[in-house]
């Protein structure tokens, strides 16, 4: 469904991605793990179109979309749950959700509101509450629900566990599994390798803008260097 082919991305003179190639098959959860500053967010921004590669291809459903606007990509079925959630604190839960549907012109918005509120009942309860008053976990749920309002086929998730208590992280991961079960392909970015490995069918490890290691979760987490760097020994 998605393929990055030898992608180079720069911020001015600084190269952030070096020949990154990854593949996400339809229906799967694939994760991209790496330390702070490795280039994970840069990779997702390149997929959604907020950054353009200097070299390489971004192939989505067989088409090179590297030159397309972000808006077009959203219309083609790609959504992002950004790092740090980025919800609008001074808007209500419902208003935040409607923003997620802004590219839509069809009449399915009401159905999708029902769909995400069934998935996250707390959002129905808090529909008219200001988003800034939600807990961290609830805000993460809202950010995920907002992305789902774009009715994505491919969902990009940038460190959904960041800053959340362990029991809330488990809740968030339950919903990731559920969303995937409902047919949404997921590219998951994480530093929490322990959680990512539980839901992924394949993992890529990004270090200083380069993918050197990839494989099934079992294979990747059994490597000494991964255990040391991400799993506490
Ligand atoms: N707006 C920016 N301008 C310049 N350099 C940036 C910018 N954003 C990120 N970088 C640099 O690009 C590299 C990758 O960053 P990022 O993709 O955010 O990493 P990660 O998400 O894995 O923590 C880092 O060295 C970071 O300092
Ligand atoms: Mg990041």
Account of the 3D structure:
- The termini are far apart.
- A 6-stranded mixed β-sheet has the order 6-7-8-3-9-10, sandwiched between helices.
- It has one domain: Rossmann fold (3-Layer(aba) Sandwich), CATH 3.40.50.300.
- It is globular and about 45 Å long.
- Helix 3 (93-99) packs parallel to helix 6.
- It has helices at 40-48, 70-75, 93-99, 109-119, 121-125, 136-148, 166-181, 193-199, 217-221, 224-230; strands spanning 2-11, 14-24, 29-33, 55-60, 63-64, 78-81, 154-158, 185-190, 202-207, 210-215.
- With 233 residues, the chain is of the alpha/beta class.
- Magnesium ion is lined by residues 40-41, 83, 158.
Please specify the SSE layout and strand pairing.
Blueprint (H helix, E strand, L loop, with lengths): L1 E10 L2 E11 L4 E5 L6 H9 L6 E6 L2 E2 L5 H6 L2 E4 L11 H7 L9 H11 L1 H5 L10 H13 L5 E5 L7 H16 L3 E6 L2 H7 L2 E6 L2 E6 L1 H5 L2 H7 L3
Parallel strand pairs: 3-8, 3-9, 6-7, 7-8
Antiparallel strand pairs: 1-2, 1-4, 4-5, 9-10
Bound molecules: adenosine-5'-diphosphate and magnesium ion (MG).
* Low-pLDDT stretches: none
Question: What characterizes the major β-sheet?
Answer: 6 strands, mixed
Helix % is 25-40%
The separation of the N and C termini measures 35 Å
Superfamily at the CATH H level?
P-loop containing nucleotide triphosphate hydrolases
Which percent band covers the strand fraction? 25-35%
Briefly say what this structure is:
The protein is α/β, with parallel strands linked by helices and 233 residues long.
What structural keywords apply?
Rossmann fold, binds adenosine-5'-diphosphate, 10 strands, 233 residues, binds magnesium ion, six-stranded mixed sheet, 10 helices, alpha/beta, four-stranded antiparallel sheet, 26% strand
């Amino acid at each position: 469904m998605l393929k990055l082919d030898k992608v180079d991305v720069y911020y001015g003179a600084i190269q952030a991605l070096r020949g990154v190639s990854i593949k996400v098959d339809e229906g799967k959860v694939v994760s991209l793990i790496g330390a702070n500053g490795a280039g994970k967010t840069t990779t997702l921004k390149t997929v959604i179109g907020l950054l353009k590669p200097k070299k390489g291809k971004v192939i989505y459903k067989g088409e090179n979309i590297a030159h397309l606007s972000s808006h077009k990509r959203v219309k083609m079925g790609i959504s992002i749950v950004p790092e740090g959630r980025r919800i609008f604190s001074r808007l209500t839960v419902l208003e935040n959700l409607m923003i997620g549907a802004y590219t839509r012109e069809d009449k399915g918005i009401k159905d999708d509101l029902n769909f995400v509120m069934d998935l996250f009942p707390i959002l129905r309860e808090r529909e008219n509450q200001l988003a800034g008053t939600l807990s961290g976990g609830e805000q993460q749920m809202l950010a995920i629900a907002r992305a789902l309002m774009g009715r994505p086929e491919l969902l990009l998730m940038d460190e959904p566990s960041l800053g959340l208590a362990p029991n809330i992280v488990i809740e968030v991961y339950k919903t990731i599994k559920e969303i995937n079960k409902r047919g949404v392909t997921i590219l998951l970015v994480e530093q929490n390798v322990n959680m990512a490995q539980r839901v992924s069918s394949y993992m890529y490890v990004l270090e200083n803008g380069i993918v050197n290691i990839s494989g099934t979760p079992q294979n990747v987490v059994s490597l000494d260097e991964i255990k040391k760097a991400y799993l506490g020994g």
